């Protein structure tokens, strides 16, 4: 069946029934031998998985208890670097509490190692309204300090509050000021946010290609997915507020969307090329499915499409008709019979396209007229001129990234839209609150334009651009001249004065990695930060949203001077271990309970039983009453779901143990009351405010 | 209470008493209907272990059906693997009456858009419609749905293709739960996640089903889900598809658990069924070939082409219009209908299903007539040419005289009878109350009346449009140009607009008049119109078979997008040596691969048993007078359906496969021999897909014969001229690319579907290896539920 194209909402893959590790690879074991096996299922004839050019490396943190996982890409002969070199790209700190048990591991800082911090000159330029150029390659000096993390996985809200705070300052303080201040602060802020998004997307593009690990040494699939989901959400203003419990669902929904978008755009572009007499070729810049494509002009071909209107096709392709371009098609070679022809003569390459000064490629076609891969020869030779490169990840339509006949084409598109936005918010000062009608009209206008084939979404365009620039910078499989063409075109697209060239970023990665390793090895650097954040984690453990909100408000009211942390204590690590394990067990059991009645059909009964027993033994000493209650609730729910008597008895035993523990704990708590209230009284007991 | 109300109540009371009496031994049916779930994908996933749990990836389905129920290992769609036809067979247990997702009435241009829910919702909201168009068609034909075997209050039907009524409350609550605070909050956190209105509706429907299970009065419940089909079309990543299957698995688990806890647990049968599979192969995108583009081009006949939706590449705001059922794609190179795309679109396509397309072309002679009328209205036509053209025109009309007059007479009589039916229906409906009390509405009585009202409205409209067509025909027959004076400008519009006229026969498709000849009308040396030179002809099958595409970047995909064409032949015109006097041919079918590789499939009934014979042939032609001829070929590789070379062809003697293939065999013998082949049960499927309505339309005693004949005509008029099947990994869907995968063909991956059952009366852990098809489904489960099976000979005895 085919649905009507109008689709309400967006498909979300289910979550309840799949376990945390549901993404692990198929084991391939035959479960029931009683199935028909006569004909092999053709849907499984997957293309063989090619070896990844990415790998993980592990650096322990001084003092133990954590490790730095660094994603390296192997790129042959990159830039000035020697051949077959490994470039560090992204690093993630995993807080393991020095044991091999993955249940108490938590991911923390995510570093983008290719990050190049803008220098003063760049910052000044970025505050100049309507200045949309990148000057130079970026900051050339290397810093001894490691780059700031893009994100703290254990505290994603911090990111939200920081950004909201800045927005508030902009709206309340800067916007009402005189126009030059407003315009330049707006320009600076827009550039800053774009710059951040550019890097988040860059990190994402690396992580999407990263191999997952099933041995527990590097990032596992669920860990990798949660990092990807967190980074993806960090692109939204309030994305950091989303609960950890929803992360995998978001990650999967995004993956579904992205995969579907790439496939659809691939086909949209291919059919458009077919209609317009051009040649479509997927452009493999990295591992996995190709997310770019190039359209070639067959220089010694001819084309006509009588009966068909190509108006919408050119509109979709966003390029001018090359068959009417005198540089490419000096004499009208329209074949009157219709269809396309292709000259099969070789040796004519020198004569074709004397007018075209740009890049060209000599390629071969096979007997049925399809393009053979570069390096293969066939019965017909063809001279190809690149027309355009598209990203296939932009929603709804392929996004034009490079127009080889008009270097400024895409640049003007960006400048036009940015100018418009900057003029409206920066110069005219229209605000979303008082001038909502303008924005409503604008939204409608944008909707119609995008339905008619214009790429109106600036954020998504930026994402495509960000992925593309690093993909090209790291690619070694393209023809070097073609790659140079692409690099040149990408440079044109750089709008943001804060940006560094991708080559500069890659060169920077090594220094950043060195700095990060140094910091990891220096007991006064990274370990200190980690220790502080662990105490913060302990303070927040099991607390409600309201408590967190209050803490955050306080933190920002004091301009970040104070943070709720538990005092230093030798017991902290043990406590953290208990808390985290409890949290993991509750999460697992909740998933089991939420899977519906009779969980033992879908989950391993032994694992469920062990988890309940462990939870019962842990929850006694856990530092939060709220967590204790949650543990009781989840076991109670399980008890009602199990059909199996033995498992029900197990639940009862666990509940009994937990309630007994609770009475003891209550007695202890009475003696040393822990902070529960919302505001300042909460500072007593386990929590203390501390200077940053 | 009026007297009428009292009578209705009494009737309802009696009905439910009767129902209760028979319920004592009857079984409850719970159906999980899954659109587009391929059996290969499902079985494979059920067998694999999820390392995180140590259980199957589909633990519930394994537990319910594999351990405790029956699985039909070899269950296939009968006919093309397309939703509307396939569900129609599963839902009725009868031969096909609906052949595509959209059908067009050749005379009137009426569109039967079976998949579009929106016009139906709108019509329902405005109290005009009660049922989906598909159900209305079946009602009109007198075919009962499976669920119709249960009374109104005994059944719970979810949203689906063959849907009676709309559950407004479900829609409303489904929407409400999407606008909850927590949903809106999560939208702020993740705007790209969307509101998921469909998800909300699915959740609501599911809850209502679970509630319905607790009600001991409900004996039929079904839940339809299109999620798997939707995912499979857009994505072929096995991990993502597995997630979808896991969702389905947990849904099945919830239903099964609810059944166990329900009051009727001891007599409930749980059934899971899918309407078709999906040609979804990891790593290979399904590529689209545009048939509208081909037909728009002069080589393809420069047709103005009608599709049921806008093409995706058109980028129209109108593309959002959910009510659209008919879109004209004009040709910019039309040979004689320039600028008349809306009045004279000459090719109407059903591209849905995507691995196949149904093509309806305007009758070739109507094109000829319109071209002649255009020429005869010219003032600059030389006298000899005018007189030759006039003579030719008269001859042409004379040749039409007999059949058109018959159409005018017969259809006219049918319309008169329809007029009488309308009058009596009007009288019947006049006394019906405007507002129905709640208790009567709960019995569905208001819907019964509204259903009659809707049927009557469509009769009125239909009568008007058929009459219009007949008026045009009559006017054409009366037209007698004198051969001297030019016809009045615009006379050509006497040709019925937005109509295709009679069907094209093989001769027409091989000699299709697509326009005037390159030099206009030409006379030969004897002063007569030179028929060959005066018109521009297209021979469609070689043209289609020769199509190649240059942009085919995937090695696994052929550059020839079209696999073969399928067309019915007139059984009476088959060479005599193939027909047996004692058992005449009931069907003759032509499968065209290329000029040298064609099949003719013959069907006859011997002692009430269907028999099929397949012949390899070349160069089939039909002469102008209708006789069909061909050259015999020896069996070898390369014929449509690729039977000879198929390693999975299971014939008794491998060396004698050629002689086996050419001999008469029963349907069952064929089924057993071919179902593991690449084209699965295609040999049987084509007979079902091309089954003439005269053989599939049930005879209803008591119905006026003229109205029965009209119904037959309606069904005959929606038959396509021919069908095009796509090569592996190709599709024809230009309105919404489906790179993930498609269905519609006879490929085993597309036809191999799911049928599994479990319950107290069902054997445990049984696998049925014998092949079965859609026609077995409804009869078997109805028989199991103690109801009358629509086709008793199709009941599978698996106990
Ligand atoms: Zn489908």
Q: Residue ranges of chain A: pLDDT <50 for 5 or more in a row? A: 1-50, 77-84, 333-350, 667-686
Mean pLDDT of chain B: 89
Number of strands of chain A: 14
Instruction: Output the CATH homologous superfamily of the largest domain in chain B.
Output: Alkaline Phosphatase, subunit A
Tell me the fraction of residues in β-strands of chain B, as a range.
Answer: 15-25%
Main sheet properties of chain B: 11 strands, mixed
Helicity range of chain A:
40-55%
Care to count the β-strands of chain B? 29
End-to-end distance of chain A, in Å? 59 Å
Oligomer: heterodimer
> Share of helix among residues of chain B?
25-40%
Largest interface summary: A-B, 103 and 132 residues
CA-atom Rg of chain B in angstroms: 28 Å
Q: Which value, in Å, is the CA radius of gyration of chain A?
A: 29 Å
Largest sheet of chain A: 5 strands, antiparallel
Number of self-contained structural domains of chain A = 3
At the third CATH level, what is the topology name of the largest domain in chain B? Alkaline Phosphatase, subunit A
Quickly give the structural class of chain B.
Answer: alpha+beta
**What form of chain A results from the Cα inertia axes?**
globular
First-residue to last-residue Cα separation of chain B: 52 Å
Spans of chain B of at least 5 consecutive residues whose pLDDT stays below 50 are 1-24
For this entry, give a set of tags.
heterodimer; A: 692 residues; B: 799 residues; alpha+beta; Alkaline Phosphatase, subunit A; 3 domains; 29 strands; 39% helix; binds zinc ion
Question: Explain this structure to me?
Answer:
The complex is a heterodimer of chains A (692) and B (799). Chain A contains 17 helices and 14 strands. With 692 residues, chain A is of the alpha+beta class. Chain A has three domains: 13-256 and 422-521, no CATH class; 260-403, no CATH class; 527-676, no CATH class. The radius of gyration of chain A is 29 Å and the shape is globular. Chain A starts with 53 loop residues before the first strand and ends with a strand. The relative contact order of chain A is 0.11. In chain B, the strands form seven sheets. In chain B, strands 12, 13, 14, 15, 18, 19, 20, 21, 22, 23 and 24 form an eleven-stranded mixed beta sheet that branches. A seven-stranded mixed beta sheet of chain B has the order 8-9-1-10-27-4-28. Chain B folds into three domains: 3-97 and 143-284 and 757-794, Alkaline Phosphatase, subunit A (3-Layer(aba) Sandwich); 295-542, no CATH class; 559-726, no CATH class. Chain B contains 26 helices and 29 strands. With 799 residues, chain B is of the alpha+beta class. Chains A and B meet through helix 5, strand 6 and helix 6 of A and helix 2, strand 2, strand 3, helix 3 and helix 8 of B.
